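User: Structure tokens for both sequences below?

Assistant:
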Amino acid sequence: MMSMDFLYFPQDKSEYIPAFITLTIFVIGAIVAVYLFYKYSKKEEKLIEEKYRLHEPKNKEQQKNELS
């Protein structure tokens, strides 16, 4: 039968504390990263909207001139 030595469940539960701290740090880091991506995405969205809003009247004028 195969040995399950790679699974280690310590009797002293205080050995879980470093793992919990590391997990907490990575979860907080992930949340911060998602927030920063979201914030950057909104900033880019505003820039693109402004850019194409500025070009919109030119396109309409060009279409009117082409039709005339």
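Moving on to the next sequence.
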Amino acid sequence: MRINLMCMAAIMSFLYTDYMFAGALFRDFSKKNTENTENTGEGAKNATENAGEASNSVEAAAAPVAEEPKNEKVAADEVSAAEMPKKEKTIVGDPVVLKIGRKEFRRSHIMEDMKGLPPQLVKGVDPDRLFSMVRDQRMSTYLMIEQAKKAGMDKTKEFLERLDQMKEDLMARIFLMKEILPKAENESALKARYAQYVMEFKKTKEHHLYHIMVASENEAKAVLAELAEGKDFSDVAKKKSIAPSKEKGGDEGFIPLHILPSPMKDTLLALKEGEYTKEAVKTDAGLHIFRVTENRDSVAQKYEDCKDALKQMIVQEEVMKLIERLEKQYKVEKFNEDGSPYVAPEAPAVN
């Protein structure tokens, strides 16, 4: 029995709702972030800013602990204890770590469950604590399953229908993993995709953008009027913008223009450093006014830094190719809601 996705969600909930643990994680993160500020430069600044409200909520939980002053001797003892190397555990065989009636679970069962946990979730977590949580989650899952069996849930129509659906979903997932993952993890394919990515970046520009977004044309006119009077763009953004960047005075950082839709991209390309858009750019999200403070050539990330993103790109591309091939193979026909033939919209032109 392996932990399924619902169990994974339960473990994540258990990790992040533990008050003291959340506080410890945040303090450790803050300490490391402070120590690395000079080395990481702009990247660290962006990472901290992007943390947003999520980091603030954890910081609030940790604050009462941080405010209490510590005795110097106690603090020194804690530092000494932290610096001492932990002794390596020697585990003999595969001991029983959980018993429920006559049912036994061994260490290997829990270790197998731990393999499925996301690396970003378990990074920095004490191994003993993590082992205990995963063991307890297996216990909770087993107890609920046994109780459900006693209630006859495994014989109900609803359960059997959902089980069939889960089997089909699992079959499709395993098929994709076997068909696609080897291509995405092929080093030659990854480096070829990286070379393509670097060439694309050589032809693109990045603009340091400040952004004000409003909901209506009247609001956009009012903002443009204030800017025409000479009011500071960042001050207006803080007061009038509804974009997430309003708290930073509308600062969106450097944006590669090739990722933007054509009308917006064309407008920004026409701006010189220090200029702002004299007319609002309309999108489905609202109306946008931009100010450009700096233009520069786009800089591609290093291979190792974007390797995971490249894998995702290859996965997406290969999935699309596979679906297109299977649509033709199985002679798929699509219809609108009223039963009329479906006509796919034309793909937007790539500039």
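User: Anything stand out in the second?

Assistant: The first strand starts at residue 96 and ends at 100.
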